[in-house]
Design a protein that fits this description.
Layout: E1 21-24, E2 30-34, E3 38-40, E4 44-47, E5 56-61, E6 67-73, H1 79-92, E7 96-107, E8 110-117, E9 120-126, E10 132-135, E11 139-143, E12 149-152, H2 160-169
Parallel strand pairs: 7-12
Antiparallel strand pairs: 1-2, 2-3, 4-5, 5-6, 7-8, 8-9, 10-11, 11-12
């Protein structure tokens, strides 16, 4: 008896941001209405490229994980829908923003970074330099030993002392 494999679907539904509307239901879940009057309740939004292109290629799925479609650029959504989507994605990609670097030290194969952040002071342990990623536009992402993300949105925006510590350690 031979087995037959199902062929994966290559059909991708593209969602026109100009014809899409996002709202919240009575339970604060995200709902999506698209062209043709189709409505999806309790949807999930994910970024295909969260670090390199956070506003492009937004994937929408049902709560059960079935793909609804892909939106090429969320910046083209009407303002109210865009704000809802930005809030939803902020929750999904929770990142602490670094505002200053207080100190850096290395010991036992780890680098210890003392940060001032948008949530207060914290100490972050980084295994090696590959856990510090430079991105376009002067952004920097740190991944600590527990997998938590810390972002410097623009290295040029932090103070000179913090920049000097970065230059010495990365």
């Amino acid at each position: 008896m031979g087995l037959t494999r199902a062929k994966p679907s290559t059909d991708i539904r593209f969602i026109d941001p100009g014809l899409a509307t996002l709202t919240r239901d009575a339970f604060n879940r995200l709902d999506l209405a698209i062209e043709g009057g189709e409505t999806f309740n309790d949807v999930r939004a994910l970024r295909a490229f969260p670090l390199s292109s956070p506003a492009s290629c937004i994937v929408f799925k049902t709560a059960q994980g079935t793909e609804i479609g892909v939106m090429d650029d969320m910046r083209k959504l009407p303002r109210a829908s865009r704000k809802l989507l930005e809030g939803e994605l902020e929750l999904a990609y929770f990142t602490t923003r670094v505002t200053a670097i207080s100190s850096v030290s290395s010991k036992h194969g780890f680098t210890t970074w003392d940060f001032e952040t948008d949530r207060g002071r914290c100490t972050v342990y980084v295994r090696d330099r590959t856990d510090i990623r430079w991105l376009a536009g002067g952004r920097l992402i740190f991944t600590d030993v527990n997998g938590m993300k810390f972002e410097i949105p623009s290295v040029d925006a932090i103070d000179e002392r913090s920049q000097a510590l970065l230059e010495a350690e990365t």
